[in-house]
Amino acid sequence: MEGSSKLSALRTFLSKYNFMVHQKISIAFDEYDSVDQLSGEDAALLIEAQKAIAIAYAPYSKFRVGAAALLQNGKTLLGSNQENASYPVGMCAERVLLSTASSLFPGIPIKAIAISYRNELGESIKPISPCGICRQTLVEYESMLKYPIRLILAGMEGKIVVLPNAGTLLPFGFSGKDLQ
Ligand code: THU
Hints:
- The chain has one domain: Cytidine Deaminase, domain 2 (3-Layer(aba) Sandwich).
- Helices cover 29% and strands 19% of the residues.
- It is built from four helices and six strands; from the N terminus they run H-E-H-E-E-H-E-H-E-E.
- Strands 1-6-5-4-2-3 form a six-stranded mixed beta sheet.
- The mean pLDDT is 95.
- The structure holds tetrahydrodeoxyuridine.
- The site of tetrahydrodeoxyuridine has 14 residues, from strand 2 and helix 3.
C-alpha cells in the first residue's frame, strides 16, 4: 500500500474508534534572493510598494510600511500605514490599500499586492509578515471578488517571499461560511 493511502486508512480507522487524529496543513510559497529574480510585473510592483514607504505616517512606531496593488484593469494603487496618537486608531498599509481599491475600483479584482517596509529603529532585511487583521481582510477581499491575490512580501533587502494567494497566509481562517 502507498504511504499516503496507508495513512488515510489509519486515519479512518482511528476516527471510527473516536481517537485523536493528527492533521497537518502545509503552505506553498516561492522564495527569491533578490528583486532581479522576480517576474517583470512582480518586480515593478515591489518597487512601487517601496516607493509608497515614503508616504507612510508612522511617527510612533517608526516602522514604515508601503503596499502596492496591481488591479485586473492594469491600474496600480498605493497604500501606506497611517498611525494615530491614539495608537489603536492607526491603520496598516494593507487595509489602507484595500479601502482605496474598494472605493476607487469596486468590483475590480486585485491580481497582486506587494508589501515592503523600512524599520527606522532596526533592520529591514526579512520579508514583512502581514498582521492577523490584514490577513483576514485580504482573504475576504479575494473571496469576495473570486480572484486570488498574489502576495509579494519583502523588506528593503534580503529574501522575497511570493505566495499564490492571500488564503495561504491564513489557514484555519474564519469566513462567511462559518456564519451559515
Ligand atoms: N504594519 C503595517 O502597516 N503592515 C503590516 O503588515 C505590519 C504592521 C504597521 C502597523 C503599525 O503602524 C506599524 O506597522 C507597527 O506595527
